[in-house]
Design goal:
Elements: E1 33-37, E2 42-47, E3 52-57, E4 64-70, H1 71-75, H2 84-91, E5 103-105, E6 111-118, H3 132-137, H4 146-154, E7 168-170, E8 173-176, E9 182-185, E10 194-199, E11 203-208, E12 225-230, E13 239-242, E14 251-252, H5 259-265, E15 269-272, E16 275-278, H6 286-295, E17 298-301, E18 306-311, H7 315-322, E19 335-341, E20 347-357, E21 360-365, H8 368-381, E22 386-389, E23 395-400, H9 404-409, E24 412-413, E25 429-434, E26 441-445, E27 454-459, H10 464-475, E28 481-482, H11 485-494, H12 530-538, E29 542-549, E30 560-563, E31 566-577, E32 582-590, E33 599-604, E34 610-617
Parallel strand pairs: 6-13, 17-28
Antiparallel strand pairs: 1-12, 2-11, 3-10, 3-12, 4-7, 4-11, 5-6, 6-10, 8-9, 13-14, 15-16, 17-23, 18-21, 18-22, 19-20, 20-21, 23-27, 24-25, 25-26, 26-27, 29-32, 29-34, 30-31, 30-33, 31-32, 33-34
Amino acid sequence: MNDKAPPFIEEDPFLLQADAQPALQQVFPEPLTVIRVGAASARAFELKAGQFIQVIDVEGRQCSDVLAFDAAALAAGEEWGLDPTVTRTLAGSSYPMPGLHAKYFDARMQPLLETVQDTVGRHDAFALACTAKYYEDQGFPGHANCSDNFNAVLEPMGVRPRAGWPAINFFYNTFIQPCGSLGFAEPWSKPGDYVLLRALKDLVVAVSSCADDIDPANAWQPTDIEVRIYDAAHSFPRAMAHRMTPDAPVRLTRPTAFAGVTETLTRDFIDYHGFWLPRSFVGHGTIAEYWACREKVAVMDLTALRKFDITGPDAEALLQKVVTRDMRKLAVGQVVYTAVCHAHGGMMDDGTVFRLGRDVFRFVCGEDTTGLWLKEQAAAGGFKVHVRDATDSLHNIAVQGPRSRELLAKILWTAPAQPGIAELGWFRFMAARLGGPTGRPLVVSRTGYTGELGFELWCHPGDGLELWNVVAEAGAPLGLVPLGFDALDMLRIEAGLAFAGHEFCDQTDPFEAGIGFTVALSKPDDFIGRAALEERKAHPRRKLVGLAIDSNEAVHHGDGVYIGRARVGEITSAVRSPVLNAQVALARVDVACSELDTALQVGQLDGHRKRLDARVVAFPHYDPTKSRVRS
């Protein structure tokens, strides 16, 4: 079954590089078998339990339909194959992705395959593999199709033919449109993109290269698919792919410096911006984690934040151009929260800027592309400055809660020229060491995302496990609990803190996102988006407000906000607040409907069939004077 190696092997796309750091490359082992699936054809083969199958789009933008059957059941005369409906139901999503819910099931709800890696993230588990009827109805009788191709290669293996096969359609770019119809477009996959799966039973597998050449499903031209099978003895990390830009090299999801501990405390991880981060922890749970932060102290992994060091004589001038704050007012040792905007005023990102020296800054934000934007603006403006990505060399945890200062006082040492932990002011940072003058070096900032007194600790990845363990040991008598992303989301909504994709996007300016205080229109230097922001501030159309919801029924991001039949806004974030014993929300509404105590309704179902009463209230809902975070 070994076919010749593909022509693109000389520049193997499966040697995944990350900013030319050899330690982050993934090198695939020698496969047991390489199977070339020619354009518009299919192949069938056996796969042993534990083995890995890699379905590769050789030239890009080519769909590959996959079937798998329990081999032992086939030998007994029973046909149990992948069932997309069961799989979607059990996964709770359109198709499984690497992580906790990664398995494909048959109609008995028995797992057959598990997704291990995926470099595309856009597939289909709704549509049939293409059929003769589809082409006949389009005026192409006799056209090659995946279902007939599957019938031909599976019949010798004891599988009965079907007119149309329910398949897992890798790389097929489908989507449900607002009207409810199933739409499709060209695949997202690039040459060499793949899905890697592990067999959970002995299987009979069939893989096709889709024959469709009459619409964009395969970019109008069917091409080859390649299958590689790897021995069960190999170990592959679970990962999804990330690209800084569409044409950038693939980068797989990576663990943080704290994974050696957090992976022993939970299996519930999410891929957040290219890092595996915990959602909640076994033995605690979201609500317990939330209360620990509100009443005692909690620790969380925030490594996925992007960090960029900006150094050189023009560092201040570059930042003055690209952020909305006035960098001239930022002192060494101080941190400031800022927005980054496009020329039209829409937000690109938000983040914090640390001033480490006269010409040395660190920008901590959410997106890789923000660092790219900094580099582009530095080049375009001729700034004498270096922009370095420090994301992989600086991992961080947050220690948050009323007892966070007490905890850190037990484990941190600072030089006489630095403030002690008791002296560190809000939005200030310092250099420190763990345990004593020769301990692990840290940067400690009095910042956070919870609305509580809190700190963030930044370290080299090699020091991550020691840092977590020391914090955990010192925090145990104080009631320390590890905190996951689900609890963090509850905390930040109560505290009125903005989240990308919810409170802001590139169609939303800082005023509409509720962070207009970050826009320093008084600063003398021009900055990107200034003219647009001046106009938007003078003539606002929408405003972020707090809502009190007169119901315990769940309200979600994107739910419409109404007055009568008119939709006047939308929910950006909502939470059932334990500390307030009420459901609260952030919403972006028309300025005409933004006055305090304005009566509104949240629309559900189609927006009209069900309404939940609400009224406009001040936000933050929790600690509006920020007395706790400033304490």
